[in-house]
Amino acid sequence: MFELIADLPAGTRMVLVFFLLMLLRVPIAFALGLSAVYAMWHMGFGLDIAGDLIATGITKFSLLAIPFFILAGTLMGSLGIAERMIRFFRVLVGGLPGGMGVVGTVVCLFWGAVSGSGPASVAAIGPMIIKGMEEDGYRRAYAAGLVCTGAALSIVIPPSIGLVIYGVIAETSISKLFLAAILPGTLMGLIMMVTLPLGRVSRHPTGASSLKDSPSLRAMGLMPYHEFPYRRRLWLTFRESFWGLMTPVVILGGIYSGVFTPTEAALVATVYALCVGALAYRTLSVPKLYEALGDAAASSAVVMLVVAYASLFGWVVTVDDLVGTYSGLLLGLSDNEWVILLVIMLILLLVGMFMDAVTVMFISLPIFLPVVHQMGWDPVWFGVLLMVNLSIGLITPPVGINLYVAANVTQLSIEQVAKGALPFMLICLIGLAIIAAFPALSLMLVNALN
């Protein structure tokens, strides 16, 4: 057996070592780096080039969007912007069938256009939405599953950190990717609402006839408004949340009007969040700024460390021609493009259960992108399809990071949260199939504006 492994190409052995390190629970970034260094050593390359490869991998202008989008989302969560948006949407759609379930879905979709990070979205908006859904008759585990899934769509709905990374790897227009993701992301949110009757066990679990005494309303600052007419309440909450609601307009409007690039938009979003917190809401303080900078730096460091070591991994994949070998195997499976697409999607779903989205992209895209070009698929459509697929990985054990954040927020076990997210996993698979079957859904806005 060892002789058989020794006869394998260095790149293939690198992949095997990577998965072995993963089984030993070595952090993903270090598993990437160690397996790549192992392969480079066997290929006879000096390790002195590793530093140059790492520097080349992370010194890309487009990657600057990652830390700044993370910082913008963190600031908007800590400065009360999320809370004000929940107030507004609670009044706007809270009276519809489904109550806080509809509110939670809408807020998650909207927050995805602000944060761009799934775990950050769960932490920022999860506690208030889950509490409100419980009071509105939903099971806690189901509410946690809804927030996990809605937050997972943060990597689909622009501005998406995942789409930024895909655009860098695939050398595809990030602006077009953002535009293409709007309708599929909205579709995924709408079909999430199909499951709302499954999670609502009672309209008034506490026996109350209304939510006038709801602790979540009090926490959201709605208690002074609950006696007002609907239009008055809607206006008051809209006025309070206006500057937060303008965030996606500023970001996406600036990108598509040509005022700034997607990378520059990340910096604009950060400055905008600081201005809103300091001037409009007056919630910005030195301690809050320090805390937000620390949280954003920690989150950015995790992502960028993976990006840095993935550059080594990707270099070995290229030099050892794993791209040609494995893409050739994929193309040789069948002459039917749908069979090949199905195989790719199944691989991504399986790998997404064990690795985060960034790692999956850096490992798989060098192999899959040549197939995409060979089959004549639109790389913009494939990028959106990839993001939807990887968003499902954020809610699938054992490495579904959103599940861990939600478990921490709700004090439930991972198993309970995963069970609550199960209906949403099935719904997301249906959405994935729709987006795969109808590429025009993703390309409609792109074609209309070009």
TrEMBL record:
Pfam families: DctM. Residues 16-441 form the TRAP C4-dicarboxylate transport system permease DctM subunit domain. It comes from the Bacteria. It is found in: Cell inner membrane. One of its GO terms (molecular function) is transmembrane transporter activity. Part of the tripartite ATP-independent periplasmic (TRAP) transport system. The complex comprises the extracytoplasmic solute receptor protein and the two transmembrane proteins. NCBIfam families: dctM. This is TRAP transporter large permease protein. It comes from Halomonas salipaludis.
